Amino acid sequence: MFFYSCVIYFIWVTSTFAQTRTISGQVTAADTKEPLPGVNVVVQGTSTGTVTGLDGTYSLNLSEGQDVLFFLL
After folding, report:
1. Region of 58 on the Ramachandran plot (φ > 0 left; ψ -120 to 50 alpha; else beta)
2. Blockwise average pLDDT, block size 10, the chain, 73 residues
């Protein structure tokens, strides 16, 4: 019984971690293509977000179903 409980727990933990992914990119100005530091990148409908670095790059870990990002200056 203990063995089966461990197997089920392992499958559950593995599937939980498999449902996240990392989204990364760079925010640039439309006209000059220069990187934009300090831009807020937020997942729609959540408080999950980050701020772009000095080179305009960002990275976010998203759950399954979270696809829409907002970019706020």
Report:
1. beta
2. 48 56 91 94 89 94 82 82
At 10, the amino acid letter reads F
Amino acid identity at 45? G
Q: List Cα–Cα distances, 71 to 16, 47, 55, 61, 65, in angstroms.
A: 28, 13, 15, 16, 18
Q: % helix / strand / coil in the chain, to the nearest 5? A: 20, 35, 40
Whether this model's pTM surpasses 0.85: no
Q: What is the CA radius of gyration of the chain?
A: 18
